[in-house]
Amino acid sequence: MKKLRLYVDTSVLGGVFDAEDTNRVNTAERLLRLIKNDVFEGFISLLTIEEILMAPKRIRVPLEKIISSSGFKSLEESEESIELANAFLKDGDIPVKYRDDARHIAIAVCHEVDYLVSWNYKHMVNISVKRLINSTNIRMGYNPIEIISPEEVTGDGEMEI
């Protein structure tokens, strides 16, 4: 069976260091283990690495170790993904001020990952934004993308079945 392909954005990686929310830390660590144990195929991009390099050293160094030991594959930004990111901005799907959010989404779409995993509820994991993004994707000739929270991957959360 084909493994699901997950693009993990920087907010999820940073969740490992969330001093205020131990549930977030546990979920982030569980997701990273699932990728490391080859349950899912994990992807980041050079944009993710650029964002990590801007983090304070106390976070940057451990994150670099996490990335190198978790088995992530790196996706390249391309002319195609830049054009799609610009369409997200032009269409008003993502505010221009948050260009990098549009870039993350476009990279994931252009590389045809199954899910983009994020804790960015304002500009990504949001019903209204997802509808706008997927409308632009379809208009531009791309498949829709599923943008989900880490809890949806790990099964963590409030609801018991």
Question: Would you kindly provide a written description of the structure presented here, covering whatever features stand out?
Answer:
- The protein is about 50% helix and about 10% strand.
- The protein has helices at about 10-15, 20-35, 45-55, 55-70, 80-90, 100-110, 125-140, 150-155; strands spanning about 5-10, 40-45, 75, 115, 145-150.
- The protein has a five-stranded parallel sheet.
- The model has no long low-confidence stretch (mean pLDDT about 95).
- The percentage of residues in β strands lies in 5-15%
Helical stretch count? 8
Q: Architecture, according to CATH?
A: 3-Layer(aba) Sandwich
How is the main sheet built? 5 strands, parallel
Indicate the topology.
Elements: E1 5-8, H1 10-14, H2 22-36, E2 41-45, H3 46-53, H4 57-70, E3 73-75, H5 79-90, H6 99-110, E4 115-117, H7 127-139, E5 146-148, H8 150-154
Parallel strand pairs: 1-2, 1-4, 2-3, 4-5
Helix pairs in contact: 5-6
In short:
With 161 residues, the protein is an alpha/beta fold.
Can you give keywords for this protein?
5-stranded parallel beta sheet; alpha/beta; 8 helices
